[in-house]
Amino acid sequence: MLNLTKRSGLMWSILLSTTVLTGCSDRIGKAEQQMAEIRNAPAQPIKPPPPIEKVEDFVYSANTLRSPFVPPSLVNVQPSTVTNNGVRPDLTREKEPLEQIELSELIFRGLVISPEGEQYGLVQRPDGSIASVKVGDYLGVNDGRIVEITPTQINLIEIVPDSRSGFIEKPASLVSPAS
Question: Which of 41, 75, 119, 152 is the most exposed place for a label (fewest CB within 10 A)?
Fold first, then answer.
């Protein structure tokens, strides 16, 4: 009797497995058939692009106000827009050591005040060494003359080529990474 029960259980297991496997092959066949129908179907038309909207002109009226990106100490030293305005790098001036390094490679590390009250900025070179600079010294490859040293940054004026084959003075800053 027990043997008959085991046999019928085995038969049911085989029957159930066959049914499940048949169901899987049927689903795979349906998926393949559906994919074939999609491949053979005609291409769907592409929607036309949306119509172009007319954007009204915007008149910027704050161009006469102070730029929020220029420190107040450099407000009076704005880039000149006149071509051949007399701004030229001094080619006879002997270059200082920090003028051989891009301004972006220099790091402002702090401010030191001498016993006489003169301020010196500490600038780290790419090799890790520190140099001291003061107002009037030059930094960077664009003839950047230091005009102010604060506890958080060094402000300078660079002489850069403009788009009209002349030169303009442009404010730049070397900011402390801690600020």
Answer: 41
Order across the sheet with 144-149: list the strands.
138-139, 144-149, 153-161, 167-175
Among residues 167, 127, 118, 126, the alpha carbon closest in space to that of 143 is found at 167
Rounded Cα gap, residues 154 and 111, in angstroms:
9
- Between CA 170 and CA 67 the distance in angstroms is 13
Q: Quick: pLDDT tens for 77-102.
A: 545 444 456 778 888 888 888 989 99
Residue 20, token pair as written in the block? 């499940």
Per the CB < 8 A criterion, the answer to whether 170 and 98 are in contact is no
Q: What is the pTM of this model?
A: 0.51
The stretch 55-60 carries a mean pLDDT of 79
